[in-house]
Amino acid sequence: MQPVRLKGVGDSLWLTLDPGCPEDDLKAQLVELFERMKHLAVNARVVIDAGQNEGAGDLIRRLETFLKETFHVGAVTPPPGKRSLDEEKTRTQDMGRSWQHRRSDVLMLAGRVRSGQKVKARKHLLILGDVNPGAEIEAAGDILVMGSLCGSALAGQPENSDAIVTALDFRPTQVQIGGYVAAGLPSSPGKTAEYAHIEDGRIVVEEYLKAKPFRNLPWPQVR
Which CATH class for the 104-211 domain? Predict the structure, then answer.
């Protein structure tokens, strides 16, 4: 067996490692493989399958650092786990009944949220309009603004760090996700949708269409 096997799966590069191979040998093989790809490795999404043995997670994290520092790859993740029976049942029910059995957890508002106004949603919040400077919007889940976000946005309140904040024109004065707070976040010079999320214990902002944060979900899931 080769120490490292590489194949393309969807929009990701899938690496299968020999868990019994020394780490230095794995890195040498990775260098050989990724140098052949040159610029194609930059920002690539990589899945590393290091088996189920103890220490596989630590090995993946070390190789993630190595690949990002050496070849500037994008996200590095382990393989998605097998779905449980409950997950499979949920998927079958959702797809078969087109989600009609679910009650909406989204508060959707149309119009401009003006300075001094505060909007709070029990779960997710969707604004079809702008959020002006001095306005505050808050949700227990995700916040989506189909317009300019120029006020304060508090998502995932109080402790949901998996929530996101996204806007077509992303220029908030402050963003909070769970217990993490960031102010004066930079925005792209071009007009492109961006989103904020938690990564490595801090709030980061990325172009939504470039990052495509939900692209690897196996089927449409309820947030």
Answer: mainly beta
